[in-house]
């Protein structure tokens, strides 16, 4: 798949498409340089990142490389018999993160560039509302009869931004994830959505709490501040600057100002999904 077809496939932001076309047409990144840097990305991502970060408009350059390499993974999808719909839904992540980059930095590109090696290696797929990534566990814990050790293969569940996280969409997505990856491995989720303290500020029937109830929480990360970033778009030192435009923002701000924290939780999908 060519990059322009790919950009249309993932509905990339028109302004970003224009800038990418200008970058491509300028000849600034020649074919030989692209192939050289693509090989570097495959062999040593850290070194690739260091090299691109030297560019003045590095966020846009990251977007160019990730989109072009993403387009080239379509052949691998076809060989594995993975649908074009899953390909499109999975790589739509680039559009989300390009939009986030513009909102945070005022420029089109990718700042969370280290997230996308999963997409290139075909270890993560969006199946319905959620993403499912095969990876080695970073945690040791026991949940009922299930023991998980560091290094064990697991399926990590991620929740991309976008549509509402309804209980129906969550359950449908889990069914799709298990149809794709099977039921042998444990399904884990590490997210601010699983922070137990959210039950103190959200109603029992909220989408977030109903999502949380699908998991057994096995660990809590008190220092992680992803919740603040997700709720307000930026982590601030001064809590007073946080907006109060939604009920969640108002409740979360009040919670934080009371001296409490909004961390993250690690959960394992409850046993009933494996029956």
TrEMBL record:
Residue ranges of every copy of the N-acyltransferase N-terminal domain listed in the record: 1-121
Residue stretches making up the GNAT-like C-terminal domain: 124-269
Pfam family for this entry, one: NAT_N
Gene3D superfamilies noted in UniProt: 3.40.630.120
Domain of life: Bacteria
Protein name as annotated: DUF5596 domain-containing protein
Organism: Blautia faecis
